[in-house]
Amino acid sequence: MNLEYLHSFYITVKCNSISKAAKDLHLTQPGLSMQLRNLEKELGVNLLKRSNKGVELTEEGKVVFDYAKTMLSIHGNIQRDLKNLQQNRPKLMIGSCKSVGEYALPCSIYTFKHLYEEVDIHIDVNNSTDVIKKLQNHTINIGIIQYKPQNDDIVTQTIISDELILIGNCCDSPKQISIDELRNIPLILREKNSGTRYLIEKALEEKNIKLENLNVIYDLNSPEAIKSSILAGKGFSFLPKLTIAQELKEQRITPVKVENLTINFNYYIASRKNYTFTEYEQKFVDFIISSKRGFC
Fold this sequence. Notes:
By secondary structure, the protein is α/β, with parallel strands linked by helices. It has three domains: about 5-85, Arc Repressor Mutant, subunit A (Orthogonal Bundle); about 90-160 and about 265-290, Periplasmic binding protein-like II (D-Maltodextrin-Binding Protein, domain 2, 3-Layer(aba) Sandwich), CATH 3.40.190; about 160-265, D-Maltodextrin-Binding Protein, domain 2. It contains twelve helices and twelve strands. The protein has helices at about 5-15, 20-25, 30-45, 60-85, 100, 105-115, 130-135, 180, 195-205, 225-230, 240-250, 280-290, and strands spanning about 50, 55, 90-95, 120-125, 140-145, 155-170, 175, 185-190, 215-220, 235-240, 255-260, 265-270. Strands 3, 4, 5, 6, 7, 10, 11 and 12 form an eight-stranded mixed β-sheet that branches. β8, α9 (about 195-205) and β9 (about 215-220) form a beta-alpha-beta unit. The mean pLDDT is about 90. Keywords: DNA-binding, Transcription, Transcription regulation. One of its GO terms (molecular function) is DNA-binding transcription factor activity. It holds the Pfam family LysR_substrate. This is HTH-type transcriptional activator CmpR.
């Protein structure tokens, strides 16, 4: 079986769109369609039902998709192990959400590297949604994310708990506001698909509040850029306590309590369901989870 075609089929199903899958795979839509037809011809069955709403698996397609996850995972393991043997140095391919990757993780990596100097460590920092996609695409093998995904092909282990805190500048920010007042203050949020934004949306939905009903003045894809905006007095934002610990300690920003609204969450180690960690990947996962706070 052509594994390239199988991989294209797998990504198409995950994207639920030939056009989106073609973009992810860096293929033209006709080129991807040809690969899917060739796979169906090779297997002698129809795998997908195509419509203007996307793609839907046939019964035969469901069977092939389940096997595809296992076969692609095994293929990835083989490539990884052979590459490590050729290069004679173990590698860690880690993806992290920005809340951890830009703050706590570098310290933990530094400590881990001192324990295992022979390991080459590569870190890719994105939002949680992109980290999950990179796991599914076999670009990375370990993910650190801000929320528990619903994907049945991703498994998680809890690292530590954290809290999203509404913050403003230290000059004229109130100490406490009501839910109704939250609707009116100028808010700066993380970008769509980020873990932080997902957690805010989920918490507000429980209070029957939608983001479009709030005064969101703009989005930024960087916690540091958001903090700069807050310090300049441009507005307020929800950020994880982990990312603002230093500013809170120095009293450069002010936490604002929102009545009857608390947003607690966990950070997770994430991996593919059928993936087996290498020796050093397992050491890293154990190191992060067994640390007193998960991170330095």
